[in-house]
Amino acid sequence: MKEWLFLVRRRFRSWATSLLTWLHGAYVAFSQWVRLVRPRLISFLFDWIAWVYLLYAGFSVHHIRTSPTLIWRPEEKFVLPELSPTGWIVVLLVTIELALFVRSFGVSLGQRAFGVSLAPAGGSGTRVAFPRRVLHFLASHLALASLGLPVLVNPERPWHERVAGVVLVPRARGASRYRPWWTSAYALTAAVLIGVTVALGWAVTDIQLGALVRDVGKPARLWRGLSRPDLSYFFTPHPMETDSIFGALVKSLFMALLATVLGAAIAFPLSFLGARNITATGPVGRLVYALTRGFFNVFRSIESIFWASIFAIWVGFGAFAGTIALFLHTIAALGKLYSEQVEHIDPGPVEAATAAGGNRLQVIKQAVIPQVLPPFLAFTLYRWDINLRMATVVGFVGGGGIGLLLKNFKDGGEWTQVGAVIVTFAVTVWLLDFVSGWVRERIV
Amino acid sequence: MAHLVIESLTKIYERGKVRALTDVSFEVERGEFLVLIGLSGSGKSTLLRCVNRLVEPTTGRVVLDGVDVTRLSPRALRRTRRKIGMVFQQFNLVKRSSVLANVLTGRLGYVPTWRALLGRFPKEDLERARRALSRVGLLEKMYARADELSGGQQQRVGIARALMQEPELLLADEPVSALDPATSHSIMQYLEQMNREDGVTVLASLHFLSLARRYGTRIIALKDGRIVFDGPPGAIDNAKFKEIYGEDAEEVEVR
User: Fold this and answer.
1) Nearest to residue A416, comparing CAs of A216, A218, A224, A220?
2) Residue B119 distance to chain A (closest CA, Å)
3) B94 Cβ under 8 Å from any chain A Cβ
4) Which among A193, B63, B142, B205 could disulfide-bond with B44, CB atoms 3.0 to 4.6 Å apart, if both were Cys?
5) Where do the domains of chain B lie, and which CATH numbers do they carry?
6) Average pLDDT value for chain A
7) In which domain, by residue range, is A409 found?
8) Touching A: B residues 5-24, CB under 8 Å
């Protein structure tokens, strides 16, 4: 190579390396700062939002209970309660006061969530004297009024804690004496939160236990059909359908199988990129790790039904669309499970293989894969199970197979046929469950 | 020229800002059996792992055969690592794999990547594995799963794996801490044999001073990441012992 080219390359390399080192240093410093800021700022937000939610949820329950739209009517939209501007200001002030109060005079939910509590400065015991708590409460107001500036500037020892002579320390686990849950601030808050949430959910989802009992006879025709499944179209297709029940079942089984096998084949290599202990060894690795995990999370949260609807239009209704839909979801779901498995391996063999001079691929082959292969197989079998059940749902929106048949029979009101499909499907799922459970037990 | 030179080695772990090693310097001659002693957390493991850079030193140099290991490129580092065998406290075997597969791991630095990926190790390596296993007396366990073996047997597999590298330097990180006294001696004797017969330089960390006295040709004691003693086994008297292990310590004999 020409001399100057070599020099330029080396210069660029050292420049790039120092830039990466600097970026990494900045990242480390920033995460250190975040670690210190989190238990104060984020946990305060946590407490405050919890109080806002409590108040608002309470209002909402009251609103729904007292409004006339108790029974669902499509023409009436569900409206959340509205507050006047003054009302909002009152809510804002009250919730902030409450949040600051519990944070100074006990362990708040937010503090508990981040595993911290107040202690007297100087390490003299764990009991904070009442005057100090009052001082902390008052100083917190100033800290909050300045938009948390003391915490942002000096996260390790913010001004309002120094003034009050207290420190925020990691909660000693098990060190505090036993207290019944209703005497601690955080447990009490949590209990009230859960209670209000259930009440809100009850009101929002329009639960009417009465209807469940009163209208039990309404779907009588359905019950009759379901209890007398008609298996005459098990092998020969129904005159209105192209597939027999058995044919559609086979289709669904293969949809699930193909989606699982192909999905696993893609998820397998990706899972190593998405494992912190394998990939995230430098700034670049951390990026790859984050991207892979991000991909898994995004695709996992998009349900197969959605994909099936898209691909039904793209490639036409049928089993192909359903298979792609299941396949995409399988990659992400298996990828995440696989990655977590890779992260939980015994690091010892990896260390040994590295010490022997193996490169990354060799180490993965020799020390990681033997450890994860049995659980991988178990997950894959389990996924086939799930995919078979999902294949029905996917069929409903254009994915073909037994789901499509079920939908057509249901829409046609042929309840004896619906009964036949459901029985067939249930038996198949049960069989597959049994077999895959048996196999899984043997490989793990 | 000394086989291994450690020059003002310092390691600070970023998380928690723990100083594991502070300005550690010493030289090891070829063929020495150097034993590191010290309390748990005194930096023995970190020191050993800095030699083959399983742990990246913060500052300082590690010079092996005149080559500065701390400045090697990843590729050159892997080439150097294959000359450095390592034996671990927890054996670090893949429990689900066969003994043979575990022993072959020692050849990773020598075989091309595709061979390792396909699991097709060359004939010579299989022959080498056979020899290594018969040397530690485990030839008949070649196809057994690693977790079917006893602790002592597992550590012998670990030694066979190190033998596969045909190392010039052997790092042993508390090789007998997980074993009972009788088994400990048998394992230490394998290390001694490698040292005497193959001329392998050994760097071993040990918990028990009695083992260190029995097998070491030289002892280095660490305390809080600093060297507090460096000399022949005989030179550790009662006062020195108290300095290394603390006032309340009692010497325990391992027979």
Assistant:
1) A224
2) 8
3) yes
4) B205
5) 1-83+169-255 (3.40.50.300), 93-166 (no CATH)
6) 86
7) 231-443
8) 14
